[in-house]
Amino acid sequence: MRVTMLMYHMIAVPENAAEARFCRTPEAFRKDMQQIRQAGYQVVSLATVLDGVADRSALPDKAVAITFDDGVACAYENALPILQEFGYPASVFVVSSGVGGYNDWGKVFGFPRRRMLTACEIRALAGSGVDIGSHTVNHLWLGRTGKTAVTNEIRDSKAALEDILGREVPHFAYPFGSWSPMARNVVIEAGHTGACSTMSGQNRKGADPYLLRRSEIMGSDAPWQFRLKLRFATNEMPPVSDVRRLARQTLEKMRLISPRATDH
Ligand SMILES: [Zn+2]
Question: Which of 93, 155, 157, 236 could form a disulfide with 133 if both were Cys (CB 3.0 to 4.6 A apart)?
Fold first, then answer.
């Protein structure tokens, strides 16, 4: 078995160049969901992925999971209606200090100010079957942070979200994909059952449940790039010119086309 996990950030029209990579428009997101269906994939929850990698239950042959990092309000306003249209489960990883406020932690990256999910919206998402996970308190680079701060970031965000939901929050995602063996241990000790990294690749039986792999869907990804990510769970997309050149070289080698005349 192998399962691809997709990572989105915002489902919204970008307001400036700094956040363009992280904004998938609602139209592009709906097309992604259509492609998942047309390609015959079954969308599974993160809990199902964790059961699959631990060999507690079998996963469908073509399985994909959908995740959103950060907890910007567009997860409720724009992503949820489309997910409901398709009946797909998903996970949303929330930066707990942002709840009911703004994405102030993104200011240093030049991100425009965006509204974050409110407690009410988080409860509504959970009530609609969306899995709410934790994404630290302040969106820190855990791999570069000392143990006391790492522990507070992980434990306090889990507790804050559990207060809002009145239930366990068993899943976690490392901000910036930044982790260390120490941070991974703190995630485990805090009582999580699984955590998502930003390393690309598919998740197979026996994979580390605390370093699940995800493929990032970027704002600029064309439909063919989305298809490749869905199929191969890769993040590194060659530019179109490289793909053409490789295709030409292959066809030349196979003598299916004559070599292109080159200038000397
Ligand atoms: Zn994040």
Answer: 93
